[in-house]
What does this fold into?
Amino acid sequence: MSEPINIKNNQQANSEPLVTVGLPTFNRPVELRKCLETIVHQTYNNLQIIISDNCSTDEQVQQVILEFAAKDSRIRHFRQIENIGLEENFNFVYAQATAEYFMWVSDDDYYDSNYVASCIDFLQQHPDHVLCSGVAKYYSGGKFLFDEKMFRVDKPKPFGRILKYFTNAGKNGNFYGVFRNHLLQAKPIGPHPGCDWSFMAKLGLLGKLSFVSTTSYHRSADGNSGTKQKMIKKFGLNKMQSLFFETYSAYQIASNIFNDSAIKKQYGFLSSSWLKACTFVLINYRLFTNFIRRKAGFK
It folds into this structure.
């Protein structure tokens, strides 16, 4: 068993902006323990840690949560009475956040000890940016695979940022960055394919997105979105939606970018309609091109 967490309640820690860490979890007690170890031992101390157990059937999940909560007063934890789905569990922890900054963490990932501090330092120095992440590193079965090719979305105009994002978005590792809270509505993650792309595009319309190379987080390549067939099953798509999966996904991603009140307030009907159409064409072209390349045997 780990030693009790030594929380620094000194003047320096109290003067730091509060950061909420949202941790949705389900049936991964071993991975959850490793994740929590790296979160509670961040060099940045002023954290609010929100854990939501999505009605895990493995009782060890609750044992891990209760063990850490007993040692660290920064932790608030919830257990859903029924499984509310992955997206709603992400939305749930977001809705509990009260801090100036927020970040989601996945229960099968772990983080360098300076992750939060490095991202916050960047955001405080760059007020025109709304999100900063570290470098995403990928593993399978504990074996290192590769570093994600990170990119900056820092064009001065919103359309330029949208174009840059959807031209480069892949595994979307920067989704797990630290971002300025209270920019979006209570449920920023929609129940549709590519919901993380929609979310990042929303932020990109409101400001610049970046990363720092001085810190990393370590992602499991085994627990990502999965195959096309898994997503079709997960979202209950009908035959027509499944047949034209790429086009359907592009439409859902583009449409859900503009369903947030903050986006609607900033962009009028004509502007949002034009941006939505351009975004749909770009995403559809990219997804369909990737589909053709996979069918042809290219990576």
Summary: Confidence is low (pLDDT under 50) at residues 1-12.
